[in-house]
Design brief:
This protein is α/β, with parallel strands linked by helices. It is built from twelve helices and twelve strands. Helix content is about 45%, strand content about 15%. Helix 5 links the parallel strand 11 and strand 12 (about 185-190).
Length: about 325
């Protein structure tokens, strides 16, 4: 299988290294817009530490900023920040074929809709819309510096159709599942876009609590549940977010929110969540696509979400200060 991973951040780098070890991968490329980062990685290669120990040597690392690299690829994995989805899809739209699966494993809401909208506008081949897939991963990674990533948490990856269920897409998703499992990325497949939405909301509810609280306090995931006040805050935010999901008739994958938060924090205890990483690196966060998205959904259906609003404005202010 020929794969292109878009976004050479923590998760894109981790998945590139994991997948490069699979016997099912004939070629894998990293696509990133940052020319200086590309130049650096061509010299250093990619090193994974932590739960996985692996070094992808410079001569073995395929990396480029040319979007044409996606042509003839079997699978495209999108790992850019949600606010960059639109820009990325615009660049690759005319290089896609109807045999290419586009799989987003990004954080937050509305990535599927953004991909669909841009491809509908820009792609010459409308059949590519059927190939939009999405999902979540519970793997956690911290970008220490360019070329060095710490694998800080492991967990299940779940993927499914994002646009429409077809026999071909179902078969392709099973192939991706086999591919991921061969790279020690334990993966489950769901069958319908509605189930995929359920999967995404299940992660969103947890992220709406852990990510902003971690970003505001500066604590790793495991440290958050060591404090009773912070644990209670996490539970309250997630339960509030779930009220929005419930009103939208979306049932979460887990019955006990508090238990799930504790599990996620424990399994990724050494991880610095992505929002905190962005704050520490003076980068834009994905708060608009996590708590901000929940606020928008809540406004549309008449649900009050004061804790999400508080987290949203605190993180926004924290971005300004830094």
């Amino acid at each position: 299988m020929r794969i292109v991973v878009i976004g050479a951040g923590a998760m894109g780098s981790l998945f590139t290294c994991l997948l490069s070890q699979s016997y099912l991968v004939s070629e894998i490329w990293l696509l990133d817009k940052n020319k200086s980062k590309i130049k650096s990685l061509k010299n250093t290669g990619l090193r994974i530490t932590g739960l996985t120990k692996f070094f992808l040597k410079p001569e073995k690392l395929n990396i480029t900023n040319n979007p044409a690299i996606v042509s003839q690829s079997n699978l495209i994995l999108i790992f850019v920040k949600s606010y960059n989805t639109k820009e990325v899809v615009k660049k690759i739209a005319n290089y896609l074929s109807e045999n290419t699966i586009i799989l987003t494993l990004q954080n937050g809401l509305n990535n599927i809709e953004t991909i669909e909208k841009i491809l509908n506008e820009k792609s010459k081949n409308k059949l590519i819309l059927n190939n939009i897939c999405a999902g979540i991963t519970s793997h956690g990674a911290t970008l220490i510096k360019n070329g060095l990533v710490k694998h800080a948490g492991k967990g299940e990856t779940i993927i499914g159709p994002g646009y429409r269920t077809t026999k071909i897409i179902s078969l392709k998703l099973k192939e991706i599942q086999t591919l991921f499992n061969s790279a020690n990325i334990i993966t489950k497949v769901v069958e319908t876009p509605q189930e995929t939405k359920q999967v995404i909301w299940s992660k969103l509810v947890i992220n709406s609590a852990i990510n902003p609280v971690g970003a505001i306090t500066g604590l790793r995931n495991g440290q958050l549940i060591e404090s009773e006040p912070l644990s209670n805050l996490l539970y309250s935010i997630a339960e509030e977010s779930n009220k929005v999901a419930t009103k939208k008739r979306i049932k979460l994958l887990y019955p006990d929110i508090r238990k799930k938060i504790n599990e996620v924090c424990l399994y990724t205890k050494n991880n610095i969540n992505s929002m905190l990483q962005d704050i520490l690196n003076n980068k834009q966060t994905e708060i608009d696509y996590i708590n901000g998205a929940i606020i928008n959904e809540a406004n549309n259906i008449g649900v009050n979400v004061p804790l999400n609003r508080a987290m949203y404005f605190l993180v926004k202010e924290l971005q300004k200060i830094r």
